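Researcher: Here's a chain I'd like modeled. Treat it as a single chain, no partners, no ligands.
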Amino acid sequence: MFESMRAPAGALTIPAIRRNASRTTLYFTASFFAIAAATSAIAQEKPELTELPPLTVETGPDVGKPKPASQKKSKPKAAKAKKQNTTPAPQPEEQFESTPIESVAATGPAAQESRGVPGTGTTGIDGYIATGTSSSTKTNTPLKDIPQSISVVTKQQAADRGSESLGEALTYVPGVVVAQGEGHRDQITIRGQGTTADFFVDGARDDAEYFRDIYNVDAIEVLKGPTAMAFGRGGGGGVVNRVTTKADGQRVREATVNFGMYDRKRTTIDAGDAMTSAVAFRLNAMYEDSENFRDFFELERYAFNPKVAFKLSDSTTVSLSYEYYKDNRTVDRGVPSRNGRPSEGRIETFFGHPGVSYSDFEGQTATATIEHRTDFGLNIRNHTVYADYDKIYQNTFANGAVSPDNTVVLSGYVDPTQRENIINQTDLSYRWDLGGGIRHTFAVGSEFSRQVTDNARNDASFGAPLGPTSLTVQLANPTSFAPVFFNRPSRRRHTEVEVASGYVQDQLEITKYFEVVGGLRYDRFYIAFENGLTGASIERADDVWSPRLGFVVKPLDTLSIYVSSSESFLPGAGDQFNNVAIVSGSSLAPEGFENHEIGFKWEIAPRLFLTGALYELERTNQNVTISAGVSAQVGLTRTEGGELALTGYLTDKWQISAGWGHQVAEVIIGSNTGVTAGKEVPFVPHDVYSFWNRYQFTSMFGAGVGLVHQSGQFAAADNAVFLPSFTRVDAALFVDFNESWSAQLNVENVFDEDYFASAHNNNNISPGAPRAAYATVKAKF
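Model: Modeled as a single isolated chain. Structure tokens:
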């Protein structure tokens, strides 16, 4: 990619990301051989693989067909498929069979046995609800026993609403606001804390800047409040963890085709099965070629994600996965402001040169996971991730408000980034009964990671290679096709980040009525930075402790009440290590987060959950957006708020997901850059309401309707531009023709509301989409 941009003068060259290849290779090779040695030793203990019992998996009702409670437990899909097919395909001689396990919300020996198991992700999925997760505590724990507010968007819930990207799926989550992300990346605000990096996949960090698809996702977990104890740096307002599909031995044969307005064309494939009694595979793939309501916008993305699982013994499993993901799209940064509000006019109009505004992302990720349970009950999980990201985005955009003479100033730049991540996590957990109703679930673990990033930026010249750095256009015609040259070097950055972490945690159950969850994590965070333009370099190492303590009281089997306190940190270099170029080494002290929370979780009816929380979150040394490419550090911000959510089955035919989030985020101690105390933090509407429900009228026909409401919010920390409130109504129709064929029609913005959905700063504001309809046809084989 970079070779094509080379020029004799002002060339866009950055230090090769492979400059530390030998060190990286040594690290990865050592991890690989350590895993291989452990695997070999385990295999020697249990050599007879052909007589092993099957892997256990979680099952639930068929998507889109709510069932009575009496029919809630279903046969494994593999067995069901055999029954339906009159001429089943030949099966391997040794069939990899799957059997369901009890939900973690259940009681009794099975539930107690499964509770301490690490690394299983979201559990107890049933339609729109989930009852457990291992992400927050590193052990498989019922949600009602976790002293933290957690929202889960299940695969069916996202599919029913027509969500295809992570941003679309998070729109209905209380306490989460989806920002514009400059038109080339996911960016969200959780509890008043904006982030571009607090994204995870199966518990491992995925912090590159790009738009994430959810073609291979079983559930999306939003864990709110500081989460450094479980996830490490960042996560001040919370984290988003995608739980992907697994090679679990279940027979899956599913394909979808999606098409509709704005020339949308999309298809997905999900296939999985057992190859033998000890080997299973899964393949997810996706391709999309679409446009949208904005002029000149184009999108092409595709991905494939094969996975294989090996059962080495009755207590040992190895899972391997590889994902290739490609996303190429037009970078669209919306419209400018005028007199403190978004500018009015055609919402389709593109500001800038669409022919040179694009983003091209390519990501490759390989993972290896070993899970082992010893004879005396110790659970061991080792998870290794290697990720290679290659991205370039180039854009022109409005870089100022509409002037009194109805003109707008355009600017532009090109920004390539290469990043390489290696992450190794080890988690051990052990559960034992002390008698008298007292039980411990003890967990200890470590994480080692190395990240190398090369980033550059060239500013634009308009009209000629050494022409002006901006272009003034008329508001009536802001789309320009004048020549643009991205040949003015403005940034060269090389960063190396190494993290060594260790944690310890205890979940202490004192009878069934009371539980204490306490943990402490230590992070050794080292960052080295080189400025390729000046030759300057900075190094810094921080030792940070992140505690968490929570108490859970369970007066009833269906009700838990909790209080908790947690802390987190973010290195002074920021989410993407972009701040090191403008501050000295002594100014790189980490930002701090402290959260105090009280909440409840109540199963008010079978499979219907009501949850709520009140919290106060303070952040020190926070960097906030001022304008395009400019941020400022403020002394202290504080967010106070509350959340309510109702999720599950109102009846066997009626599912609901509703939420309300109220929050006020303010600057308490300002800075000398014009961000004064009393200003509100940007991208934080005071109230966000969301409501989605689906009703199955007959076995063949169903319908869904929902709405999203956001109160007004500011577009930047100076509070100069205000985005008005909006309410959007969505709807869907579902038709199940038979066991193999189904279809649905989704209509977004049913009443064609004019609104502004998000922003990046005062003059990059995204209009909301007008009414649009999309159809999906699904086939199961």
